[in-house]
UniProtKB/TrEMBL annotation:
PROSITE patterns: THIOLASE_2 (PS00737)
Family: Belongs to the thiolase-like superfamily. Thiolase family.
UniProt cross-references to InterPro entries, sorted A to Z: Thiolase (IPR002155), Thiolase-like (IPR016039), Thiolase_C (IPR020617), Thiolase_CS (IPR020613), Thiolase_N (IPR020616)
Species for this entry: Nostocoides japonicum T1-X7
Principal EC category: transferase
Pfam families tied to this protein: Thiolase_C, Thiolase_N
Signal peptide coordinates: none
Protein name from the UniProt record: Putative acetyl-CoA C-acyltransferase (Beta-ketothiolase)
Protein EC: 2.3.1.16
Thiolase C-terminal domain boundaries: 268-389
One function term, GO molecular function aspect: acetyl-CoA C-acyltransferase activity
PANTHER family: ACETYL-COA C-ACYLTRANSFERASE (PTHR43365:SF1), BLR7806 PROTEIN (PTHR43365)
Lineage, top ranks: Bacteria, Bacillati, Actinomycetota, Actinomycetes, Micrococcales
Active site: C91 (acyl-thioester intermediate), H346 (proton acceptor), C376 (proton acceptor)
Boundaries of every Thiolase N-terminal domain copy: 5-260
């Protein structure tokens, strides 16, 4: 079978997902076109060789509507012959884009493909795609109570007996690890973005080097609700803005092709896409999918959890990676070693390839061989991917 390899992978630095954020003045299609253009420029690649562009985006309305992937391809100056499509698997959208791209290469449908994602949460707020409707209404009979993700995080904390101190300590460590990479470890993965005022954004806006567990302890509960408290008496209301991922703007993308095409083009692959998995999980608690996704991908890959050199588990909320780590008894030093979404942000559709960018750079810096990435997704799902550094 043809192997699918990652020749290059990049991201923008994060911008706060609110008016006035560092990237809020930039159209999301421009953010995505920036990383697309960087991939072909960095690799001296004729963009006309790209068979398809697959991009994740969750809020596909307003500035992000009408197939933003195709808009970005044209805005990047690619030939009009290059097609593109936009996919939505909620938070895992760009990770799913990577799966689709790699599977297309392995099946012989593609030789060269770009997978990535974008989200401008400052311009298209989370939930905008509902457009005044009731998208979950048909589930009322089967699932009479579908709480929001914050309640799912509270339930995970309660069921895995994670207290507020553990969550805040983990979250502070995420910021400290990310801050340790700024201007050094992240330099090779970040594509500078030129803003309307002519300045360049190339440092993650959401990382706070001074964050400590003590300062986080002073933040109030984000989701306290007395009615929901009666329904879920086990909840201790431990989720705060400090141990949750901030809303952010950003884009990321990977250049994927067959090993044969890479060799023919004189390009050196950085990693091989080794194994894939996707699962559904309980939509009421919603955020536990990374656990069965990891079990499934380890079974498919023939690897054990201890064969993996780095684990990227998306930090949608601190209980998600902590519960995952408890289930697999992993070395905490291998879990999100450069910080995660609590520090670097969670630009929904872009997060999958953002995590993969950071993971591959970490494997290269440390000489590790295998990386495992997994993330929870709205509606109760999760993707998992194993890459092998080359």
């Amino acid at each position: 079978m043809t192997s699918a390899v990652i020749v290059d992978i990049v991201r923008t630095a994060s911008g706060k997902g609110k008016p006035g954020g560092a990237l809020s003045g930039i159209h999301p299609a421009t953010l995505l076109s920036t990383v697309l253009g960087a991939l072909v420029e960095r690799n001296d690649l004729d963009p006309g060789l790209v068979d398809d562009v697959i991009a994740g985006c969750v809020g596909q309305v307003a500035d992000q509507s009408v197939n933003i992937a195709r808009t970005a391809v044209l805005a990047a100056g690619f030939p009009t012959s290059v097609p593109a499509t936009t996919v939505d698997r909620q938070c895992g959208s760009s990770q799913q884009a990577v799966h689709f791209a790699a599977q297309g290469v392995m099946a012989g449908a593609y030789d060269v493909v770009i997978a990535g994602g974008v989200e401008s949460m400052s311009r298209v707020p989370m939930g905008s795609s509902a457009v005044g409707g009731h998208p979950m209404a048909p589930l009322a009979e089967r699932f009479p109570s579908l709480p929001h993700q914050g309640i799912g995080a509270e339930l995970i904390a309660a069921r895995w007996k994670l207290d507020r101190g553990q969550l805040d300590e983990y979250s502070a460590r995420s910021h400290q690890r990310a801050a340790a990479q700024e201007g050094r470890g992240f330099a090779s993965e970040i594509v500078p973005v030129r803003r309307p005022d002519g300045t360049v954004h190339e440092v993650d806006e959401t990382v706070r080097a001074s964050t400590s567990a003590e300062t986080l302890a002073g933040l109030p509960s984000a989701f306290r609700d007395e009615a929901l408290g009666e329904r879920y008496p086990e909840i201790d209301w431990v989720i705060t803005p400090g141990n949750s991922s901030p809303l952010t703007d950003g884009a990321s993308a990977a250049l994927i092709m067959s090993e044969e095409r890479a060799a023919a083009l004189g390009l050196t692959p950085r990693a091989r896409l080794h194994s894939f998995a996707v699962v559904g999980s309980d939509p009421e608690i919603m955020l536990t999918g990374p656990i069965p996704a990891t079990e499934k991908i380890l079974q498919r890959s023939g690897l054990s959890i201890h064969d993996i050199d780095v684990y990227e588990v998306n930090e949608a909320f601190a209980p998600v990676p902590l519960a995952w780590a408890a289930e697999f008894d992993v070395d905490p030093e291998r879990l999100n070693p450069r910080g995660g979404a609590i520090a670097l942000g969670h630009p929904l559709g872009a997060s999958g390839t953002r995590l993969m960018t950071t993971m591959i750079n970490h494997l290269e810096a440390t000489g590790g061989r295998y990386g495992l990435q997994t993330m929870c997704e709205g509606g109760g799902m999760a993707n998992a991917t194993i890459v092998e550094r080359l």
